[in-house]
Design a protein that fits this description.
The chain is α/β, with parallel strands linked by helices and 269 residues long. It has one domain: Aldolase class I (TIM Barrel, Alpha-Beta Barrel), CATH 3.20.20.70. It contains eleven helices and eight strands. It has an eight-stranded parallel barrel with strand order 1-2-3-4-5-6-7-8, surrounded by five helices. Helix 1 (16-29) crosses helix 11 and helix 6 (154-165) packs across helix 8 (195-213). It is globular and about 45 Å long. It binds 2-phosphoglycolic acid.
Length: 269
């Protein structure tokens, strides 16, 4: 039996005051999540604040990114050890917004602006290894673009990303990961992937893990779905056998909706 996870990805939202209010709002209204794990991925500036707010609650805290070196001349980056030193225990790796696969042009932006941060299969693998080395629990993301889905390349793209993220890891290391399948076209669009199709692709993720690390590791590995998860669609997603939880952006920014998502994860056990 795999423990479900409900993970909130706050992205670049919440200064310290707002982070404190949101975290406290979740702590105050959330019923005991039972077997489900609850994690909030908060901006680096709010890690210590949120760790303090959720102390003595079942909520765990994660960073949204890390760098693959321990220290040095990497202006603006944060290392895995720095994250550990805040009390956070999780880290998100290779989100499509960091892989530069998002391409969202806002007013006054050019193509050069939306290249974003340029995470690649190679750096996602390096970051995953570093996270495991320092004892952080990684949720590593994968997902296809709309054009790739329309071209019938979903399984090839997602399978390739999963193989790359696992490169060089022992089965015991793979067993420590959580993988999130997030179709890029469903992120922040309100257009959720059909639950059965999301389940099918999460199954593709699991079968690649089985090839790389063996069937026992694949059977135990948690695979989350992300992309416009909301209190309205979460039950259908959680009912799918290959979906072990959600990675949630927009609906994690209000205590009320996030608490409803946690309840759905708890109820799925
Ligand atoms: P969304 O974001 O729930 O707002 O679609 C999901 C994510 O990017 O992790």
């Amino acid at each position: 039996m795999r423990k479900p996870i409900m993970a909130g990805n706050w992205k670049m939202n919440c200064d310290n005051d707002e982070a404190c209010k949101l975290a406290c709002g979740i702590v105050d209204t959330m019923a005991a999540p039972g077997e489900a794990e609850v994690v909030v991925f908060v901006p680096a500036t709010a890690l210590t604040t949120v760790v303090n707010c959720v102390e003595d609650s079942p909520i765990e805290v994660g960073a949204q990114n890390l760098f693959w070196a321990d220290k040095g001349a990497y202006t603006g980056e944060i290392s895995g050890r720095m994250i550990v030193s805040t009390g956070a225990r999780w880290v998100l790796i290779g989100h499509s917004e960091r892989r530069g696969r998002f391409g969202k042009l806002e007013e006054g932006w050019t193509e050069a602006h939306v290249a974003y941060f340029g995470d690649s299969d190679v750096t996602v693998n390096a970051k995953t290894r570093k996270a495991l080395e320092v004892g952080l629990k990684p949720i590593v993301c994968c997902g296809e673009l709309l054009a790739e889905r329309q071209a019938g390349r979903t399984d090839e793209v997602v399978g390739g990303q999963v193989r790359a993220m696992l490169d060089g890891l022992s089965p015991a290391e793979v067993a420590k990961l959580v993988i999130a399948y997030e179709p890029v076209w469903a992120i922040g669009t309100g257009e959720v992937c059909d639950a059965e199709e999301a389940n099918r692709v999460c199954g593709v993720v699991r079968s690649v893990v089985a090839e790389v690390a063996g069937p026992a590791v694949a059977e135990g590995l948690r695979v989350l779905y992300g992309g416009s998860v909301s209190p309205d669609n979460v039950a259908g997603l959680m009912a799918q056998p290959n979906i072990d939880g959600g990675l949630v952006g927009g609906a994690s920014l209000k205590a009320e909706s996030f608490v409803a998502l946690v309840a759905a994860a708890a109820a799925s056990v």
